[in-house]
Amino acid sequence: MSKPSTTLIHHPYTPPANFAAPQPGIFKASTVFFADVAAMRARDWKTKAGYTYGLHGTPTTFTLEERLATLEGGTECLLVPSGLAAISLVSFAFLKSGDEVLIPDNAYGPNKALATGELANFGITHRMYDAMNPADLAAKLSDRTRLVWVEAAGSVTMEFPDLPALVNVCRARGVVTALDNTWGAGLAFAPFDFNGSGQGVDISVHALTKYPSGGGDVLMGSVVTRDDRLHRALKLTHMRMGFGVGVGDVETLLRSLPSIGLRYAAHDRSARELARWLSGREEIAQVLHPALEESPGHANWRALCGAADLAAGLFSIVFDEHYSTEQVDRFCDSLNLFRLGYSWGGPVSLVVPYDIGLMRDASVARWPYKGTLVRFSVGLEDVEDLRADLQQALARL
Ligand SMILES: Cc1ncc(COP(=O)(O)O)c(C=O)c1O
Questions:
Q1: 85 Cα: distance to centroid of ligand 1 (angstroms)
Q2: Over 90: is that where the pLDDT of 365 sits?
Q3: Are strands 350-354 and 339-340 parallel, antiparallel or unpaired?
Q4: 3-class DSSP state for residue 48?
Q5: Ligand 1 test: best mutation among 210, 222, 315, 377, most atoms within 8 Å of CB?
Q6: Who lines ligand 1 at CB under 6 A?
Q7: How confident is the model at residue 361 (pLDDT cuts 50, 70, 90)?
Q8: Three-class SS of residue 20?
């Protein structure tokens, strides 16, 4: 007769199968049991045919991966601990010493920092290109280019590039394209099938931290492909680098993912309304929101996202140049509902002032505005309350 502690560890009870409920079951594991040595020897962590170790997948992580692959129109998905980890997974999977990566100058800043701060240590060079000029990308591709990043809309400055044209330039040279699809979220356009053309990027990375989570409380990223060869390369690097995700966070994502379409549309509606209203204010020199006609790349947005008529909840404004940085800081500090903080996609509206001059390489493209830029992530508060908050803060400029 075993002692209680042994009995409790090796308890014989197994609950009945066929439990069905709105949310999938949550499995927590580092260790996974094998039925016998033959099964252990036959393990294959590269596919979803079975289980080998928590790091390589559980029913819970597989379920989230499958749902995210469906959201983006891909066939394979890998989960990583953050959106930035998704970017580094792609870079380390496809770049080696002597290779070059091209990054749009308006890309998410830490993607550029990864290239300058880490990839350079491995003998991997990078060049920035002008995302609004496919000819600039074509001119910068070389025999050493192995990976090209694209992003739509551009980070902070919100220019919407001609994605199909950028992808065509790379395809003609056989270079892998990776999209930071956090803004589009698999909803505004189909990353692997632009306008039903069958053409799209090779890889889509998504900071699940933003709209898929929707709570401002989880960090996670995904890498989706629909190319088995690329997926296998990513899976190998993923395994070697040990990119695990916490099952509690996976559970949160599974809970919030079903409402992503409703939330995304609501963020979009309020953001467009506020962006249009701000474009009529005399304090503002330029509103940067791809769905607004005066915004750079609006025609590209319309061509790619017009059918869905979706545009996320992010936009930026450039203040008239006669307002000093101190005045714009006072505007930001005066906001009550918009909180100062990074990231986006959660229920709380956020605001961040940026110095674009420090973020851009002047040799790639000239930033045309002199005034200070402020970026808003519009949350799920009532839009009239948000408008009133902006109005009272403008009055304190
Ligand atoms: C466009 C974009 N991509 C990637 C990321 C990185 O996501 P995470 O914060 O999960 O690392 C961010 C975060 O702000 C982002 O804005």
A1: 9
A2: no
A3: parallel
A4: coil
A5: 210
A6: 82-84, 108, 155, 180, 182, 207, 209, 219, 221, 343
A7: confident
A8: coil
CA 300 to chain centre: 20
Distance from C-alpha of 338 to C-alpha of 109, rounded to nearest angstrom: 22
Residue at token pair 């899976």: 235
**Atom 5 of ligand 1, nearest CA residue:** 83
Nearest CA to ligand 1 atom 15: 108
Please say whether the beta carbons of 300 and 165 come within 8 A: no
Which two three-digit tokens encode residue 244? 């695990």
Residue with CA closest to ligand 1 atom 2: 108
Residue 148 is encoded by which pair of tokens? 């090209």
Q: Is the dihedral of CA 172, 83, 211, 381 positive or negative?
A: negative
Which position has the token pair 């799209």? 200
The Cα 249–Cα 141 span in angstroms is: 39
Length of the chain: 397
Please state, for a pLDDT cut of 70, what percent of the chain lies above it. Answer: 100
Q: Give the span between the Cα atoms of 177 and 202, in whole angstroms.
A: 5
Number of H helices, E strands in the chain: 14, 12
Q: What is the pLDDT of residues 320-339, one digit of tens each?
A: 999 999 999 999 999 999 99
3-state secondary structure of 225: strand
Query: How confident is the model at residue 357, as a pLDDT?
Result: 82
Centre of ligand 1 to C-alpha 112, Å, is 12
Inter-CA distances, 380 with 59, 275, 345, Å: 32, 15, 9
For residue 98, is it left (φ>0), alpha (ψ between -120 and 50) or beta? left
Q: Domains in the chain, please, with CATH? A: 37-258 (3.40.640.10), 260-394 (3.90.1150.10)
Edge-to-edge strand list for the sheet holding 203-207: 76-80, 221-225, 203-207, 176-180, 145-151, 100-104, 125-129
Q: Hey, which residues does 374 pair with through a beta bridge?
A: 317, 353
How far, in Å, is the centroid of ligand 1 from the Cα of 207? 5
Instruction: Find, among 373, 323, 315, the residue nearest to 349 by Cα.
Output: 315
Query: What is the signed CA dihedral for 171, 176, 177, 182, rounded to 10 degrees?
Result: 150
Å from CA of 33 to ligand 1 middle: 36
